[in-house]
Amino acid sequence: MNESRPTRLCHLGKQTGNIGRAIGRLPLVGGRLDKTLHEKAAKATDPAGPGVVTALVIYLFSMRRVWRFKRMLALRAKGFAILTDRFPQLAVPGKVDGLGLDEAATGSGLVRWLARRERRHYEWMASHKPDLVIRLTVDLATAVARKPDHRVSSLETKIRDVERLTFGGAPILDIDSALSADAVLDHAKAAITGVLEQR
Q1: Rounded to two decimals, what is the model's pTM?
Q2: Among 5, 93, 186, 199, which is most buried by a count of CB atoms within 10 Å?
Q3: Cα 52 → chain centroid
């Protein structure tokens, strides 16, 4: 992309998974902390909703993403082409770059207020439709082989959820990740070149 115009790579993930896995690898206390984090994450999806502290942590991770998104838009306004690894979406809540809090949960007033604020931020981010989404499709065996540090159940859920993402009607190119790396890159480059030539 840099060959045709100045380009910047922007990371828009929350990084909660990487942070959690790093904590889990800490000597002595890692296993216990990892278990506690997973219990709190499970409470976040409980119909009763998360507690105030858990909700605040989820909200702060979302705000970190909002800050990165604003920085990305500033670069775009300066004429840079933007390549992101992820993109905020509203179709599927949770782990695949969706809302972390559910405003309909029966938590405290503060938790519901945080959920409403998070939703407004996500609606704003999702209103900026990407020019192209490149989505790698993957079967479970391949995903497990490539991400051995992830829980199998988590990978199953992500595979199912990623198929449901629409990104507000943005053009989506599905590429089979079982193809060779060269073939995947060739498909992606051809699609990107087509978008850049239209701009």
Answers
A1: 0.77
A2: 93
A3: 23
